[in-house]
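Complex 203.
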Amino acid sequence: MSDFLPRNIRNLIEEFTKLPGIGPKTAERLTFHLLRSDQRKSRDLGDSLIKLRDGIIHCQSCFNFSTENPCEICSNSYREKDLICVVEEPLDIVAIEKTHSFKGVYHVLHGALSPIDGIGLNDLRIEELFNRVRKNDPIIKEIILATNLGLEGEATAQYIYNQLKNSDIQITRIAKGLPVGSNLEYADDVSLKNSILGRKDFI
Ligand SMILES: [Zn+2]
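Predicted structure with zinc ion bound:
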């Protein structure tokens, strides 16, 4: 990085580059954008960053980020509690909610099984899903496995299916219409909606 730049500027560029999807050029652009803007913009950004995690917890039912336990979706009486959609990340819920095609509740695994990256069962909220199934209160009719369609997502869906296949619950998998390997969060609304509505029994 350019050593002639003041340290504060270099620091912010460096922090931006640590974020996913932001390369050095974008980091520089963002930093200089803030430098040129009204100082209030930087203050508001700093303020939001400092407060980002304040009061944020995991809902103890679905493990989505929330300020309440249970979260807004789990406590909503209009949602179908017998239908659980299992996703890898909280962002997947944001993507699915935008499609307005799902009225059940969720379960967030917080990742997918990936031996190569050292991510195993204990790093995910899989056991918590099995606890929900064991508890079966409210009664669960269907579990939609909406993990991503890449290798890790498929392996995770297969593992969950193997553990639950002898239960009375219908286990389904989202349809393959989405680009293979791509994350749900990047899918367009129509494809994602079709993928959920076109789900099939897991085999
Ligand atoms: Zn919840």
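The mean pLDDT is 93.
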